[in-house]
Amino acid sequence: MRDSRALVLKLAATALAVGATALSAVFVTSHLKNANAPLQPSVLNASDLSGLSVPGGGTLILSPSVRQTDVPPVTSTYAS
Amino acid sequence: MLPERRIAAHHFEALGTSCSLFAVDESGIDLRQSEPWVRALGARLTRFDDSSELSRLNTGPGRWTSISPELEDVLRTSLRAFELSAGLVNIAVLPAMLAIGYTRPLVHGPTASAPVAIDVPDLPDVLEVRYREARLRPGCALDLGGIAKGWMADRLSESLGENVLVNLGGDLRARGVGPAGQGWPVGLGGTTVLLGDHGAATSSVRRRRWAGDMHHVIDPRTGRPSESGLVEVSVVAATALDAEVVAKTALIAGPELAPFLCAAHAEAWWLL
Q: What does the radius of gyration of chain B's CA atoms come to, in whole angstroms?
């Protein structure tokens, strides 16, 4: 009686471990890339990663959080 | 879009450059009150004054030296910048800057340059910081440069208010929705962008040049002015300090690595 109870417990523990492993494997493979992850560079959502042409030349890349405007600038960043 | 509100501005010369502070007019913020703070802190963190707090550390005997909370924070920030930039942003470049003739403010002109490159040590190997004290290896010297300006722009914007824009010599920090509710319009890379809670900075070798190929951006790997193939990088990031570090790192790293670096750490960027 005691042997069969121990066997059942072992089988249950084994099944639990295998089940947890399988479930976590399924979860991980289905969440390799979470689009809502906070550390995703926001520029990945930029509409045009090839860059915008600007009068001064060079390549300008904007993420959705930074927009161009026609409003005159109040100041500018320059060589520091 | 909110109706456009008037902007209060205060412009002054400090830190060897032009500084501008902005706030929406009805905020009641007295921008002029911040000028003495910028001047006083700049005087303590400059390398061009032998009596400054930084110069005392630079010329010290290598023992633990008492420092202010502000210098402690800037030095800790510089150590983090070194790690984040894989050593490309290294404030221990001062001996190399002196060797190429950048011994005084360039408004007074450069001095003669040495023909040999100076080895730039890894910052964590020569600088230790603990509570209100720092120790710098003898023979080494620090130039806080853009790191101090970015750090000051961030601190100043936090103390000024919720809807302000600080520009300390090109290191910008914006807070709030700006005068029309869409952000602060700022010139960057030949265009104008709207900044919300962002920092912005430009690192360039097009200015502060002399004797043909000499300029102030030192590549710590060579001890000589950077020749990466990029001449100017502007960055928008979370803070002015972040923007300064990313812009300088990208400029020195060069055109192959810069886009990847900026994609990982910037909200917007311009490479030339």
A: 18
- Render A19-40 in DSSP notation, one character per residue: HHHHHHHHHHHHTSS-TT-TTS
The answer as to whether B2 is a domain residue is no
B236-265 confidence digits (pLDDT tens): 999 999 999 999 999 999 999 999 999 999
Statement: residue A41 has pLDDT above 70 = no
Residue A21, in any domain of the structure: yes
Note whether B158 contacts A: Cβ–Cβ < 8 A.
no
B1 in a structural domain? no
Q: What is the pLDDT of residues B46-92, one digit of tens each?
A: 999 999 999 999 999 899 999 999 999 999 999 999 999 999 999 99
3-class state of residue B90 by DSSP: coil
Q: Please count the structural domains in chain A.
A: 1
Number of domains in chain B: 1
Assign B144 to helix, strand or coil.
coil
Nearest-CB residue to B267 (from A58, A65, A76): A65
